[in-house]
Design brief:
Blueprint: E1 14-16, E2 22-24, E3 32-37, H1 44-62, E4 65-71, H2 75-85, E5 91-93, H3 98-102, E6 106-111, E7 114-119, E8 122-126, E9 132-137, H4 144-152
Parallel strand pairs: 3-4, 4-5
Antiparallel strand pairs: 1-2, 3-8, 6-7, 8-9
């Protein structure tokens, strides 16, 4: 399994979305993209991560980034997840895991001390020309958005006390 590195072209993809349309990396050309990969909609960690992106989406948008979430879940599950959690950014479905594999975000990983094959929670930042700027693998669901924002120089609002 090869992993992406900054400076490489991001692999092209076209995938179905939670709203029933399709989205491709080419559709996002000319915009910076935060593409985050999560294992399964409606699980605790993935919900935490999605809601963190939801709560900070306006900040990323203002800074010129489009946020897109991708998982191997079927479109119907993604639609329920987006509606339940009020997610305004696109969720795309890669049931075949071809795109996830091309990004190095599907393969062997350690879970609770066991080696399993599955989705590797990852985030990619792709520039306006389709080149990978950031490739982070095995990220944590909690706190990842703040860490990514700091790395990108994006100022998030202070968390409520």
């Amino acid at each position: 399994m090869s992993r992406l590195e900054p400076g490489q072209p991001a692999p092209a993809w076209t995938l179905p979305t939670a709203d029933g349309s399709t989205l491709s990396l080419a559709d996002l050309a000319g915009r910076k993209v935060v593409l985050y990969v999560y294992p399964a909609a409606m699980t605790p960690g993935c919900t935490t991560q999605a809601c963190d992106f939801r709560d900070n989406e306006a900040v990323f948008t203002r800074e010129g980034y489009a946020v897109v979430g991708v998982s191997p879940d079927p479109v119907e599950k993604l639609a329920r997840f987006a509606e339940k959690e009020g997610l305004g950014f696109p969720l795309v479905s890669d049931e075949s895991t071809e795109m996830l594999t091309a990004y190095g975000a599907y393969g062997e990983k350690k879970t609770y001390g066991k080696t399993v094959v599955g989705v590797i929670r990852s985030t990619f930042v792709i520039d306006e020309q389709g080149v990978v700027e950031v490739a982070k693998y095995n990220v944590r669901a909690k706190g990842h958005v703040a860490s990514l924002a700091k790395q990108l120089g994006v100022e998030l609002p202070a968390a409520p006390a």
